[in-house]
Protein: Hypoxanthine-guanine phosphoribosyltransferase
Organism: Asanoa siamensis
Amino acid sequence: MLNGAATVTVDLARALHRHVEITWMGITSYGAGQGGSGAVRLRKDIDVDVSGRDVLIVDGVIDTGLTAAWLMTNLRGRGPASIEFCGLFRKPGARGIDIRYVGFDVPDGVVVGYGLDYQGRYRNLRCCARLAPHVYAPPSADLVDHSAHDALTE
C-alpha cells in the first residue's frame, strides 16, 4: 500500500534477510475528514504480476478491516501462491479479516507519525502518537457558544 505504509514497508524490507520486491498500491476508504466512507477506491494498482508468488500486504493502520478485506479478495483473484497481511497498528474495529502480522493493537483515535498522517500532516514525525481528539473531532454541542455561533451565521 502507498503513503501511510511506505516507511514501515521499507524498514521491514531492510530487516528481512532475503530478496524482496516492493511494489505500491494506492487504496483509500477515507473521505476528506478521515472518516471511513464505507467504500474502497483503487487509486494506483500494482505493476507486477503476483501469480504464483508469495505476497505480503503491508499497511500502516487497520481501522475496520474493510480495506484489508478488499485487498485480500482483489489480490487472491490474481493467483498468488500465498497471501498474508501485516499491519503496524490494528484498532478494535478491525474484525472479519485474518491479520497474520500485527505490530501493535491500539485504541481508537487517529495515529500519526512514522509515515502516518492526518490531512497530510505529521508523516515526518520519527515517533508515532495518537492525535489529540480536539484536533479531528467535531466540537460537542454542549461546548458551542450559541450566541457567538448565531453572530457568525447572520
Summary: Helices lie at 6-15, 66-76, 133-136, 146-153. The radius of gyration is 18 Å.
